[in-house]
């Protein structure tokens, strides 16, 4: 009987879900694209709920109008797409895109960098908040609070696409991906969906509604940046590095995802440690 437990566990079958939800002629709707769209729409809806809940803000004074977020969603979408694509091109596969520059525009083939997308959204938030006279960190806080849902959905789409899979393993829940070679692998996309999506969203929910940290600008945003960075670094130990990059600096563990996420952790810690509650001016 003991010999049975020494045998390698069979991998779980890949669900083989069609990456395309529906296709009409040359037009196709992909799970990957839907994940981005639903994530952006949820973050917009959730942010509007936050900025209309006076209990969450200092002295019940709302930091912005819901209509401001209606206008910002366009800025956010542009920042995510342009930043995410630019980041992937620069950080992950620059030689290929130098050789084939038109492939830069083939976003339907995949290839988006969260770190680039984050920088794109930060730039969009900074420009938009200055233009509208909104406290930049409060805008960052309310947007960040809903972002994990979109992150989780996109990671599930990565799993459906059979991309960004994990390293070979013999854990009982290993999956043999159709394009991952004859290996049972960590479903690292689902690890990320759980940590960057569900767990991070719940942590931020506690901070906004139980700890009332929206009254302390940049704390929630800092927690999001730090939480994502820690989650990404952890999962990178189970995720196969990008083939064109491999492991970095002669190691068998350091990846580009770890390098890009480390400054996020440090920046998030700084933001939380230096965040101070807002003091509203007293009437004359």
UniProtKB/TrEMBL annotation:
One Pfam family recorded for the sequence: LGT
InterPro entries reported in the protein's UniProt record: Lgt
GO MF annotations, alphabetized: phosphatidylglycerol-prolipoprotein diacylglyceryl transferase activity
Protein location: Cell membrane
Domain of life: Bacteria
Bilayer-crossing regions: 20-47, 72-92, 112-130, 142-160, 190-207, 219-238, 253-273
HAMAP family attached to this UniProt entry: Lgt
Protein name: Phosphatidylglycerol--prolipoprotein diacylglyceryl transferase
Gene (name only): lgt
